Structure formats: C-alpha cells, structure tokens
Amino acid sequence: MVMQMYLPFCGIAISNAQLFAASRKEYERSRALLEVVNDLFEEQTDLEKIVKKIMHRAQTLLKCERCSVLLLEDIESPVVKFTKSFELMSPKCSADAENSFKESMEKSSYSDWLINNSVAELVASTGLPVNISDAYQDPRFDAEIAKLRSKE
To answer: Start and end of every GAF domain (predicted)?
Structure first.
C-alpha cells in the first residue's frame, strides 16, 4: 500500500532527473557555441588562430578523436582543390598524449598543397556533412594518408 503511494512520485522524480540532464547537456552545447562566437570576434585578424579555436571547441563538444578543416581554393570551381589543411588530434590518438595535443594546438598541420581526400571532396562538392563513426571501415577514407599524417 505504501509502495503504491510512492510509486507515482518516483516516476515524477525520474522524469525530472532526465529532463534536468537533457537541459544541462543543451546548456553546455549552447555555452560552447557562444564561446566560439566570442572567439571569432576576438581573433578576427588571424585565420589560423580562429580555425584552431573553432576546431578545439568542436572537438570538445563532439567528443571526437580527430578533427580536420580543409579550405577550398576556389568555391566556384567545379574541380575540388584544397589549399590549406588544419588538423587536431585528441590525446587518445597519440602514444605521447600530452605533447601531441599541445603540439597540434600550437602548430596545426597547415600546408599549401592539394589534398587527395575523397571524404573531404564529397563534403565540398555536395555541401552536406558526413559523420563517420569508424573512418577506417569506410572505403572513402584513405587510411595510408592518415597514418602518414599521424606521424608528423
């Protein structure tokens, strides 16, 4: 009898806890996006600093191991060519986690060369995002190039 009286209250408490957790998660996302906007206004003169800050915040928000930003040479061109590349690896991707993360934040993999990356080409040509849970299982991902870049 007593349990039957408390059961509805337990259900309400669980529901409220779930709502609180969801609102907390949304608050953290909104806060991270606001920090990105703030960073954009603070670093308007240095593209490299802006991109690195955005990548760091995106990586934290999305909880991903690696993050890459590739800049198109000419957005109007039918041929997809990238001129600049920025990469950021989390500590999970490196044996020497702290040094790797610090290095990648201080010196992104910034290069003026044509990048052959079919996933990036697909995103650039369609304008649609691609989310790959395991890049090494995706046939569009070039694992050999990723291994070479990881050793830089």
So the answer is: 46-143
User: CA–CA separation, 152 vs 140, rounded Å?
Assistant: 22
Q: What DSSP line would sit under 15-27, residue for residue?
A: HHHHHHHHHHHHH
Report whether 86 contacts 131 (CB < 8 A): no
pLDDT, residue 115, reads 42
Question: Does residue 124 contact residue 72 with C-beta atoms inside 8 Å?
Answer: yes
101-126 tens-digit pLDDT: 444 444 444 333 334 467 788 888 88
Looking at residue 113, its pLDDT comes to 34
In a 3-state reduction of DSSP, which class is residue 115? coil
Counting Cα atoms < 13 Å in the Cβ hemisphere of 45 gives 0
Q: Which pair of structure tokens corresponds to residue 100? A: 């790797």
Say if residues 98 and 91 touch (Cβ distance below 8 Å).
yes
d(CA 148, CA 111): 14
CB 140 within 8 Å of CB 123:
no
For the chain, list residues with pLDDT below 70. Answer: 92-117, 142-152
Measured between its terminal Cα atoms, the distance across the chain in Å is 68
